[in-house]
Design brief:
Radius of gyration: 21 Å
Strand order of the largest sheet: 6-7-8-3-9-10
Number of helices: 11
CATH class of the largest domain: Alpha Beta
CATH architecture of the largest domain: 3-Layer(aba) Sandwich
Oligomer: single chain
Shape: globular
Distance between the termini: 52 Å
Structural class: alpha/beta
């Protein structure tokens, strides 16, 4: 499955004194199997762009194509988009409302008109995918859970629709360190299981660790696109956009200033460990304890 944005522009409140163009002339293709990171400073347009991917927002200009079909064309079934492309907002736990976990996760499938047997199967499957298979979903209120568990329940509600593409807006925002790590590992697991992932993020270490592609948004336009290792080679350019680089990149630059080469192409922790060991074995770390 493929989503293509062609010359997409979105202007909020056009014709009013509050008119503001959030994204402009964006061209982007999300391919089957991608783990695509959308990165950019606050106000760069990344969240607006994310909401176009599943048709929640309609372009002021341009088209959004799902497998070659314009999702805003007359007669196109918008439910088809919602089934295939799931969107998880930032802090999705704030949208929980049902009295039990099972009912909340079942809300979407129920609206599809599925049988109760199919709904129950999807609820069970979705909770298992987010690591909550042991939860007593029929009895437990989502408001009795921890913040991390509540967010997982909200994600399960989207997964119960069985989307092929999952769009996540800052999925780890506000979580404690352990819950954050668990959330990102779970998303990586969904990707390994076959889901196409689009993740809005400002955490460069997460992008380096998980993404296969990255798109950098700046002033509503696509400024850069490529593999994370390609993007992070342009540290000075990113800095001018108000962005950072992964911690490993910073360490590599510091070591290079000290005359220790070998880490300039490291963007992930495991790469840094291998490079440091190579430096040590080569005798360049002699004398350090």
């Amino acid at each position: 499955m493929q989503v293509t944005l062609e010359n997409v522009t979105h202007t909020y409140q056009p014709g009013s004194p509050f008119q503001a163009t959030a994204i402009q002339n964006v061209n982007l293709t999300i391919r089957d199997g991608d783990f695509l990171a959308l990165i950019g400073h606050t106000g760069s347009g990344k969240s607006t762009l994310a909401q176009h991917i599943n048709g929640l927002l309609k372009p002021t200009q341009g088209r959004v194509l799902l497998d070659g079909q314009d999702i805003h064309a007359k007669g196109y079934d918008k439910k088809e988009v919602r089934r295939k492309v799931g969107l998880v907002f930032q802090y999705p736990e704030h949208q929980l409302f049902e009295e039990t976990v099972a009912k909340d996760v079942a809300f979407g499938p129920k609206n599809l008109g599925l049988s109760q047997m199919e709904i129950d199967e999807r609820v069970k499957e979705a909770l298992a995918r987010v690591g909550l298979s042991e939860l007593d979903a029929e009895e437990k209120s989502p408001f009795e859970l921890s913040g991390g568990q509540m967010r997982r329940v909200a994600m399960a509600g989207v997964l119960a629709m069985r989307p092929q593409i999952l769009v996540l807006d800052e999925p780890a925002a506000g979580l404690d360190p352990q819950s954050r790590e668990d959330m990102l590992d779970m998303i990586a697991s969904l990707h390994r299981q076959g889901s196409t992932i689009v993740m809005v993020s400002h955490a460069m270490d997460d992008v380096a660790r998980y993404a296969t592609r990255a798109v950098v948004m700046d002033k509503g336009a696509v400024a850069m696109e490529g593999a994370p290792e390609e993007i992070f080679r342009h540290g000075e350019t990113l800095e001018k956009m108000g962005l950072d680089v992964p911690s490993v990149c910073k360490l590599g630059l510091q070591l290079k200033k000290m005359g220790l080469d070998g880490m300039e192409n490291c963007f992930r922790e495991e790469q840094a460990v291998s490079a440091i060991l190579a430096l040590w074995k080569g005798g360049k770390g002699h004398g350090a304890e």
